[in-house]
Amino acid sequence: MACARQQYSDGVAAGEELKVFYYEPQPRDESVPQPDPPADSSKEAFVFPSLAYLIAKKAAHLQRKISKSRLHLDVRSLMQRADESTKRRLLSCAGPGAGGFLLAHPVRPDLQMGPAVIIDSVLFRLGVKGINVAKIRPTDRCQCGKVHDYNNLVSEIICCPKAGGHTWILRHDIPKLKLAEIARQAGFSTKVESRVGSDQRRYRTDVTIYDYCGSGNAELDFAVTHPSSKSNLRHRCIQGIAAKAYARKKVSESGARGIHAPDIFIPIIMETFGQFSKQLMNVLHTLAENHIDQSATDAGYSEEHRRALKGVVVSGYVQLLSVAMMKGVVYNLDAAAKAIIRNNGKDLRGKGTLSTGRAEVLLASALRAQFDSLVLGD
Fold first, then answer.
1. H helix intervals, 214-302
2. DSSP state of 48
3. Global pTM?
4. Residues 303-336: b if buried by 16+ CB within 10 A, e if exposed
5. What backbone torsions phi and psi does residue 219 show, to the nearest 5 degrees?
6. Which residues contact 241 (CB under 8 A, 6 or more apart)?
7. Distance (Å, rounded) from C-alpha 334 to C-alpha 120?
8. pLDDT (tens digit, 9 = 90+) per residue, 302-346?
9. For residue 274, which of 90, 80, 71, 75 has the smallest C-alpha distance?
10. CB 16 within 8 A of CB 46
């Protein structure tokens, strides 16, 4: 207990600006030594109770509070040491929906990811080069004519439309089609690539959901943005800022202005590391509510049970979209890397299918290297 108290005191001293937990003791008992109050009562602080107090009284969820506060300090230390691209990658990987593919059970084809796809997805989120991206030489020239910085988290490859060729659109189309399928399964009529506006010629939206929320149609327009791209690095380092900025851009475009009430325009933005925009999460909640209303109307569920059921349904939607998104990103990166390698006259080795054992070895090696660089330092 003394060791834990000393470790926690050191952590609080190292991060005074960080909001941690404040322990509020039971009504004062003069016979029991009380913990000292914070030096500055205007700031939230955690006062570790004395051993005598812990013997005489119970401290609810004390270990949880200590562990969470220590985790906050560790995350803050890591963010202070990281560069701008790494900070945005970590924030995006911790955002809503970002880890859905890691929780998906491969019980159906659209939840299955091959060994090479899953390992490249994990490496991409860790900031490590994928299997084929690691084979690119620093002097290799892209199809666009530039020599990219291939050590910069492949951000220049994933943002170059000529690098991946036709696969550049896959990261956009795969989740788009999956959301249209989810909406149909939830009981809505949908249409993909419908024309909008008064002239019916120039503007198109990706997915149209008819009779959305009992009023007009919902026109959904998809986009995928990379949080570490040069344009997004100009924004403040806040979780979800890349998706939010792209959503504002979508709303101001001509296609959105050509949609009139009662129809509504909804920008659906996903970040390459997997984070969902707020608008996308709202759409998933609406689809889940409609799905429950149609399939469980006569089941006699209470409001509490309906909320729990809705959480399960939304979680399933998130996993489906997350798997679709990461598949598109990995296909894009893999095709771009192969095209650059071939364009520079280098043969690809290891063309065969990646076995599960080999995938585990590569992933373990990458995780070990990432741990050494982040935890052990330079």
1. 241-251, 254-257, 278-295
2. P
3. 0.72
4. eeeeeebbeebbbbbbbbbbbbbbbbbbbbbbbb
5. -100, 110
6. 227, 232, 235
7. 9
8. 778 888 888 999 999 999 999 999 998 888 888 888 888 887 776
9. 90
10. no
